[in-house]
Amino acid sequence: MIAETDRDLDAATARAGGISRLVVRAWRGFVVGDSRSDRVAGALALLAAVAFGVFFCVLAADRYLSYHAEAFDMGIEDQMMWSTLHGHLFGITLERRLTTSYFGYHFEPFSLIGPVLYLIYAGPVSLVVFKNVVVSLGAIPAFWLARRHLGSAFAGLTFSLVYLLFPGLEAAQMYDWHAYTLTAPFLLAAFCFLESRRYRWMIVFLALAASTKENSPLDAVPLGMYLFAVRRELKLGSALAAVGLGWFAVGTYLVVPSFNSQGQQWLWNRYGGMGGSPLGALEHFLSNPNLLLAPVPQDPNWHYVALLLAPVAWLTLLSPTALFLMLPALAVNVLTAYYPMHLIETYHYSAHLVPFVLLGAIYGIGTLARRLGWLVEKVASSQLPGARLPFFRTTGNPSPPTPSPSARERGLQGDAILKALPPRLKAPPGEGGGRVDEEGAGDEGNFRDSERTWPLSSGHSPFPSDRGKPVGARQLGAIPHRSGLSRTTGRLVTWALCGAVLVATLVYHHYRGYTPLSGEFVGYPITAHDRLGDRLAQTVAGLAPIDTPLSAQTNLYPHVSHRPNIWMFPEIDTARLIFLDLSTLPNTTGIDEGIHDQVRQVLNSGQFGVVVAEDGYLILERGAPRVPLPDSFFSFARASNPRITHPLDVLFGDKLELLGFDVIPDRDGKVNLRAYWRARAPIQQDLFLTFYITDGHGVLEGAALHREPANYWYPTNRWKPGEIVQVTTYNLPVGRRGEDFGVALGAQPGADPFDTAGRLRPTVLAAPAPLRTPGQGALLEVVTFHNDHDILSEVTSPLVPAAGPDHPLDARFDQGISLRGYSLSESGRSLALRLFWGASGPTSIPYTVFAHLVDGEGRLVAQHDSPPDGGLKSTTAWLKGEVIEDRLTIALPPGVSLAGTHLEIGLYDPVTGRRLAVQQDGKTVDHLTILIHS
Predict the structure, then answer these.
(1) What is the DSSP string of 427-456?
(2) What confidence tier does 352 reach under pLDDT thresholds 50, 70, 90?
(3) % of the chain surpassing 90 pLDDT
């Protein structure tokens, strides 16, 4: 049972010993407050920390177990831990031409915790679990800091939630193992110990933070300067700054260059090659001042900072102290020319900045609350001439203003208040009230600068003070010269600003977060294919001794990296075994361009033979006999009884059928598709099943230039009639942020997606909504997305347009086509014509629409011939009951008058020129006549 009173806690603490005593004292400092609301808020913050910790442990582990982690960085980090555990300190072989030690990349002494974890469970799962547990516990110091400075349990709970929901931190929690991520909880804990003047523990947590990366010790430099100049801790401040600077210099200029063949150039390359030294960097910036504002041209620094501070409503800008402490960490990211370090919610680079952002927001709220409270007090005491309070009203005669007490009187009043406090709010024996300065603030607690916050804390220090050291009057709520009115206003402002920060965090998290509260949320289900990969990874380990050289593709690398010699495919070198999963090997432009061709070259070289080939996985062994790929290898391309989320029935040509597709969501406005195809009869051609990107209105913007894995390894001429083949895209090139885009499918012979000669024209037999046909009717746009700040939502076209024709008709053509009406207007030297076609279903022939302007003598004056809607609504894709709005523009020749002219409208076969018959005035004709009224 949780003790409800201080007396119960004191008794429990006296009975407990060792770790139990620490737990009881920590519980007392964290959860127990002045009221039930303090205890409830503290319990909720703890519950949130535990819930988020469990959630991200599971989600990050699933990401690894579903083969989404890659060689950079999970593979290299896992091999480093395993190598250290087996006697090769920080050993790696991923880029052995640069370095064979992780210290050649980064100086991270804290990563020595990894081999200890591997004694419990040797694998990346132990790393991600440990990281997410520690990071989630950072919500506790976030709670302490906010409650202490803002005097509100609600503020403490708010900032614990802001910390947990911060997308930049969640990205670091998800992205593999990086010790650098742990700077967030370590720095928050250091700030708490700084507040309670427990400098030894502060130094411990600063040292832990400094050990996570070579640039982390720089955080101690401004903190030491603050201690030196503001706290007057001359020895501690100067020593802290000197040690931090020295540690940074040793890691950056001595350790990393000595382990890397490129020396200092390895680190300075991320900063545009800035001279290799601080003086060289200064000269570099003086000669290139634009780099200070935009080292990454497509993402200027102001944009990066604005996004970084957005989750706290930019209140950090109100705290010069926090901004000063933040400078080194911020400079590391904003001065780099390495674009990934500007991606706040993708990698781990921004986690280091989260503690400073939160600290600044807490002080920013305190500053506003104190200033507004002071303003209200001045107005209430009529010290501002003519001022009134529109939101307060008094009855009867107003009381005369109370004169402001002197400093001595304030001190006496403070003593009286301390004596009058109930026992649970008094300081423990030996921890009497501290000196009260002229602002009424004790010399314990807050950073003593112009940002002393108000209203006051709840009365409990987050950490028990050292014996004999005062807690301070400020912690007990003793600012007696504040009026009740100003305190009330301060509390209201504090609550309102905390609520605004929480709303800002939730809104930002909706767009960029990693939990199900976000529209960007992506899960990582573990499939049977993934479990097969685990079994084959064990097979690889059993095929050859542990020291046998191995080459593995990027997403398999972290699952076989417990060996001293491993390459990343396509590098083979001396590898005896090659481990591949061709079903997930991207075949895109850039680093993976043509990689499937390289696999085929290896298979055809005769140097490697197939040992295992199953469901897209390949294990090749040097010197093994060459054999053809068995049928079991192609099972990754086949789908038996699939649950298609977007069913269709579309016939490409007369043999190839599209059954539908699944949308595979991704982050950052990206998406992939899995299309389901079926052969109605044997297909003799090897067709390129292409994926195109449109602008959301059917206009082509790009295409996947290479075959996807299933289309590459299981070509259409091998398909059996009736079997369903699934073709999945990887890294589909999608549209830009804030713009709509669509995905279209096509089928054609040849390897050029823009060669239109042999495209198979689609005929839509069934679809849930109207579809467009880009490429002059030879492609099918199956889905359109609206991109709202990288959150994608599907856009469905209506079956009937919202606006109807100005002139209704009921003209019936052959093939079940009818003209429901038209709208006509003259614009400059052209006629704008809108035709509203009604469909009873698709046609077998893609008819062309014609609109001819004919004068009174029957002469053709002007014309417009094109497939419906410029080819985007081919008649072969019309659905039953659909109304197609067809927009045409007829250019008028100079000097032509519309008087006495009429329009002849109809459809014809573009190959034979045969027109469709239509009934008009009881006669069968080959066009419909529309008179033009001036």
Answers:
(1) PPTT-----B-TTS-BSSSS--STT--SS-
(2) very high
(3) 61
Q: Hey, what amino acid is at 362?
A: I
Determine the average pLDDT of the residues in 727-752.
Answer: 84
Which tokens belong to 458? Answer: 């709840």
Half-sphere exposure of 386 (CA within 13 A, CB side): 0
Q: Is the pLDDT of residue 537 over 60?
A: yes
808: β partners = 821
The mean pLDDT value for 746-755 works out to 89
Whole-number Å distance between alpha carbons of 44 and 31: 10
Residue 251: pLDDT band (50, 70, 90) is very high
pLDDT at 776 over 50: yes
In angstroms, the first-to-last Cα distance of the chain is 91
Of 705, 682, 789, 695, the closest CA to residue 744 belongs to 695
Longest Cα separation, the chain: 113
The string of pLDDT tens digits covering residues 9-64 is: 445 445 545 556 655 555 555 554 557 778 889 889 999 999 999 999 999 999 99
In 100-178, beta strands by DSSP E:
none
Of 503, 583, 429, which Cα lies nearest the Cα of 67?
A: 583
Which three-class secondary structure state does DSSP give residue 715?
Answer: coil
Question: What's the residue count for the chain?
Answer: 934
Q: How far apart are CA 681 and CA 477, in angstroms?
A: 84
What is the distance between the alpha carbons of residues 233 and 235, in angstroms, rounded to a whole number? 6
139: nearest Cα among 456, 505, 431, 433? 505
| Cα 370 to Cα 368: distance, rounded to the nearest angstrom | 6
Query: Which own/partner pairs from 894-898 qualify as long-range (CB within 8 Å, at least 24 positions apart)?
Result: 894/829, 896/861, 896/862, 898/826, 898/831, 898/932, 898/934
Look at 333 and 290; give whichever has higher pLDDT: 333
One-letter identity of residue 127: L
Model-level pTM?
0.84
CA separation, residue 644 to residues 647, 659, 674, 724, 782 (Å) = 6, 8, 9, 11, 14
**Predicted local distance difference test score (pLDDT) of residue 875:** 96
Task: Answer whether 799's CB lies under 8 Å from 788's CB.
Answer: no
Identify the H or E element spanning 612: strand 608-614
- What values do phi and psi take at 875, rounded to 5? -65, -20
Strand order in the sheet with 780-788: 700-703, 687-694, 741-749, 780-788, 791-795
Contacts of the segment 256-263: beta carbons below 8 A, 24+ positions apart = 256/103, 256/104, 256/105, 256/106, 256/107, 256/214, 259/99, 259/101, 259/103, 259/104, 260/98, 260/99, 260/104, 260/105, 261/97, 261/98, 261/99, 261/104, 262/98
